[in-house]
Specification:
Blueprint (H helix, E strand, L loop, with lengths): L23 E2 L11 E7 L12 H8 L3 E7 L12 E2 L9 E2 L1 H12 L10 E10 L2 H8 L3 E6 L7 H6 L3 E4 L9 H12 L32 E2 L2 E2 L9 H19 L1 H9 L1
Helix pairs in contact: 3-5, 6-7
Amino acid sequence: MSDDTAPPRRSHGRVSVSLNRQPSDLMGGPPRVKGAWRARIITLFPGAFPGVLAESLTGKAMDLGLWALETIDLRPFGEGRHRNVDDTPAGGGAGMVLRADVVARALRVADEGTPGRARWPVVYLSPRGRPFDQATARRWAACDGITLLCGRFEGVDERVLQAFGVEEVSLGDFVLTGGEIAAQAMIDATVRLLPGVLGNAASTEDESHSHGLLEHPQYTRPAIWEGREIPPVLLSGNHAEIARWRRAEAERLTRERRPDLWARRDTE
């Protein structure tokens, strides 16, 4: 295929990254819906975005202007000719730590035009943070936008987190090489809750964690597959019985697979 016949690129696909101190809008082409939710990502790897967020429903919602994604490259805020962003840990130890002065410069840019922490949280993606859950996604979706700081190396100087009122949130009890993957997961969980993204608002009400329970089992055609049948109640047309069956199954699965969630329901 010649260069003249190469297919056009999607507006939110791979982007070229240049060194600048302003947020880079990865949506590009279509206009934003007024008041559209925005995510700003401070990262050493802006090329990692939009990644999977450009696909499926989140990508379509981005094309429609229902939300926008901006990256802020941390490197241009670095010190010296080589734009150093990290230094050795005070007190000794392995690895490197992102400098407070460097991160602060990026956070000040990210704060420009935002309405304050109540409507625009600033979050550091950290394995020591409070666990991310569906309630957190709903809280973020109700805001105007969010700034996510993607850590690297051994973490971020504690002083800048305190000075900027940054909350720490963890994707789970494990350690990643950086916050970019966690950022995409959390943005995905949040964006799908925005009005108009899923199309059917009921979709978010019946899924896992929406009511403190795991989701009930799902089935579809064929009615019999390799000798396994769809539970007869689901084919009965009795909506009250179907609702009771689904509730019972959700409770059973939660007790078996997530006793921590089940125990939490008893204390709330």
